[in-house]
Amino acid sequence: MGMGRFALLLAAPLLIAAAPQMTPTGFAITPDAAPGAIFQPLNPDLPAAPAYTAGQASAVALSPDGRTLLILTSGFNRMNGPDGKDVPDLGHEYVFVYDVGGPAPAKRQVIAIPNSFAGLAWAPAGDRFFVAGGVDDDVLEFTGAPGAFKAGRTFKLGHKAGLGLAVKPEAAGLAVSPDGRRLLVANLQNDSVSLIDLSSGAVHELDLRPGHGRPGGAFPRAVIWAGNLRAFVASERDREIIALGLTPAGLKIAARLPVRGQPVAFALGRRLFAALDNTDAAVVIDPLTLRLIETIPTAGPRDWGRRGLGGAGSNALTLSPDGRSLLVSDGAENALAVVQLDAAARGLKATAPEEDDRSAVVGMIPTGWYPTGVAARPDRIFVVNGKSVPGPDPAACRNDLGVDKGHDATCLAANQYVWQLEKAGFLSLPPPTPAVLGALTRQTAENDRVFAAPSAADAEKLAFLRAHIHHVIYIVKENRTYDQVLGDLEMGNGDPRLTVFPEWMTPNQHALARRFVDLDAFYDSGESSNTGWNWSTAGRTNDWTEREAPVNYAGRGLQYDQEGDNRNLNMGFATAAQRRAAQPLGSADPDILPGATDIAAPDGPGGAAGTGYLWDQALKAGLAVRNWGFYGDLALYERFAGPARTPRLREPWKTQTRVFMPTKASLMAITDPYFRGFDQGFPDYWRFKEWEREFDGFVAAGKAPNLMLVRLAHDHTGDFDDAIDGLNTVETELADNDYAVGLVVQKLAHSPFAKDTLIFVVEDDAQDGPDHVDAHRSLALVAGPYVRHGAVVAHRYATTSLVRTMEAILGLAPMGLPDAAAEPMADVFDVAQADWTFDAIVPGVLRATGLPLPPGKTAACETPRRSGAWWAAAMKGQDFSAEDRLDTARYNLALWRGLKGDAPYPARRDGRDLSQNRAALLAANGAKCG
Question: Is residue 105 part of a domain?
Answer without folding.
Answer: no
